# Entry
Amino acid sequence: MSLDDFVVQLWRLLTLQDYNTRIVLLGASVFGAVAGLTGTFLLLRKRSLLGDTLSHATLPGVAAAFLVASAVGWSGKSLPLLMIGAGLSGVAGIGLVLLIRHYSYIKDDAALALVLSVFFGFGVALITAIQQLPGGNAAGLDHFIYGKTASMTATDAWFILAAAFGCGLGCFLLFKEFTLLCFDEHFAGASGWPVRLLDVVLMGLVVIITIVGLQAVGLLLVVAMLIIPPAAARFWSERLAPTAIIATAFGFVSSLVGVTASALFPRLPAGAVIVLAGAFFFGVSLIFGTRRGLFFRMLEQRSARERLQREHLLRAIYECSETKGELAAGMPVPTADLMLKRPWTHRELAREIESTAKRGLVVSGDGQAVALTNRGLAEARRLVRNHRLWEIYLLTYADVAASQVDRDADRIEHALDPRLVDELEDILDRERKSGFVPRDPHHDLEVKS
Amino acid sequence: MSWTEIDTWIVVTGVLISMACALPGLFLLLNKQSMLGDAISHAVLPGIAIAFLVSGSRDVFPMVLGAAIAGLFTAVLTQVIHERGRVDAGAAMGVVFCSLFALGLVLIRMASDKVDLDPSCVLYGALETAVIDVGPVPGIAIHSGVMLAVNLVLVLVFYKELKVAAFDPALATTLGINASLMRQALTVMTSITAVIAFESVGSILVIAMLIVPPATAMLISRRLSVVLLWSLVAAGASVILGHLSAITIVPWTIGKLTGTANMGAVSSAGMMAAAAGMLFLVVLAVTKAVSRRSTGHEAASTQAVTG
# Structure
């Protein structure tokens, strides 16, 4: 294909000029969107793999429905009938998982794997029987495994639209209930919500998604679209509503990209390309996601580490000047004294002083001494105050030995929030003058001993 | 339906390969990694496809190598996404194996120019056609037998290590056994067994042979050595029952139901999985009935699991 042809084809696709393209794009992308939405709840219930078992377990139902229809003389290809068969055997499979879990020592994951493989095996056996039926009309059943995304019909698309509308509405209306179910099942139960019923409704939505998806996009894709977009969306938000919206968008866009790519390169199986598009979004989210992405978490950890180091330096300078009784901004403290304060090397200390000086908190004097600026002094005062308040709290209320409190306080001082500091002040009933720095409890200790 | 030499070879191959699967499968089950078997059986597909593309043939060795690498890759990637990305373990596994399987399907489509490779053959296996082979003994029967022997030797040699790593990873560490290394070794063993089993039972049915016979055996005993033996028995019995029903009762019933005369045999691999499931349910029902009647129920159920 020349580049011109390629561009022309892409343009035809994107402008939706072909009726067939419109159907496929619409069906696949709406399916992707609603699977992403429903999958979000499945993910948060930690039941993602249940979707896998469910979709495999539908196969014997499809085959059995076909056989029964043929036996009574109907057309085995009646789509609603096949879907009812799929739904029934899918539900039976899930029921069996629950039964095994309840009646044996077999663990949850083993029960899922067991039902999945046994149902699928039986389904395959039935399909090989159907292939021998006269008339050779069993060809359509293959679509339930691989899907027939590229040759989706208008009927399939309508089924998907109807199911998507139903599931979308269900998720919207029951959003609050599902949220409660996902995050605090026991609280939901204690508050009088019908937890069992909600669980059944959620599973019902997943069953509906699965059976409309099977025929149109195939077994593999159904599972993938229930799992991958929500898992990718989790990296971008810690809140449920945005996560659900992002998952919906990921599902939608992966399907669009997949269908477009497979239309341009007809040799590529559309279902698989959609999954790979989803996997691409997952990979990008894993690394660059703003909430849990690896890159942002790394940056966050680095900035927290830097802050910690800076605060150590400020407190060390403050305490050195305090011992000498020369507490004021601009008062130089020899670096040799600072070296005794913490187990840092000369290089570490020098680097720390340099980076803190850049922030305008200290001024460095020729590498031999360092002094706090006005801002640095205020910041150091706040830190030392937090540190000592916490030490005093530990001494007074937690009964920690005086020789131990320094290290504990050292860990917590960076994390104390202003509200807790206020509370500590109240509890300790000290002078409430803002900015007051308590005396060093170690000093009292030395005096006593 | 008459029994032919082909039926004999189907059963022999099936028994060998399902026993070979049951050995690593039992330890997957004990490690609560059953779905990893499912994941691996999907995820080795790209490994096999790449081996095809690179070697341009259907030789066993490149396939085994590709599968082992893909299997290990699946386990490690799942672990990384679960731990570093803080994704739920099940979902992490789902993401990895769905993506790899999709990649495998695309690669197979691309490879189909070079080598004759049918995705549905990899999925369902072709036990019935594969045993029709030149020579006195079909190739896949030999491969399955070798696989069983290798797995048996590995399990017997590393019995103690596998057991401790499965039941008490912390104890394993204090005894100087690297539990995570044992798990990874188990992953590789499972992947290689899976790819050998592809030839006979197909990728998706491998999971049945990995999990169902050991699960059945777990219902019978709580002692590891006894469970190991029963797993092998259950695996063998599933295969024999499965093949018998595939050539007799199932086609007969479906033939009657649809009014089709001369309904031929259905997929043996499929019925073997189904038979394994039926066997599990029967054993579950029987053990429940027995334990309800037995007075020593409490003692039996609280007895510690030991080997």
